[in-house]
# Entry
Amino acid sequence: MVNKNNIKSKKGFTIIEVVLVLAIAGLIFLMVFIALPALQRSQRNTQRRDDYSMLVTAVNNYMASNNGKLSNLLKKGTATKDPNKELDPKQWINTSGEDPNGNQYQLTAISWGKYKDNPQTTEDLEATAQSGGSPVYIIIKANCKGPSDSKNNPQPMEDNAARAFAVYGYLEGGSVFCQDSGSNNS
# Structure
């Protein structure tokens, strides 16, 4: 007869089971930590797009209040002799005037003629952003239908329509935002 006291029951996990669970947990944490910065960048870019869209609306409202004229916008800037007027982003974009990273928006109204003499490439915008700025341009007499750059970003081009303007700004990850008065490009 078999004595029940002699049979030892083994309880617990083997070392292989423990290592396997730890390896799976490690992979899950690794995936989360890799995906988290991309998710945060995407959220910041969504906020920037919203801010830029609010700017397009604000410029359209400004035009409606000024008989459709955008030339007065160039005169509203804080710079006295510079034809590239820097505007107060607190009045045009959001109440803080800051981008999602906490950098101050650098909002500049510029005519197409001045812009085409010194166009801002994606690399230019990115370099300014890396140095702590957040450049945004209101380009008067422009739209966003220009040829795309090497990173497939929309570029501004000349538009002689009376109410034409483009808002052109930096997004993280080497891309730009461009929305004009007559489209929804981004």
Notes: Strands lie at 85-87, 105-111, 134-140, 142-146, 155-158, 165-171, 175-180. The first strand starts at residue 85 and ends at 87. Confidence is low (pLDDT under 50) at residues 77-84.
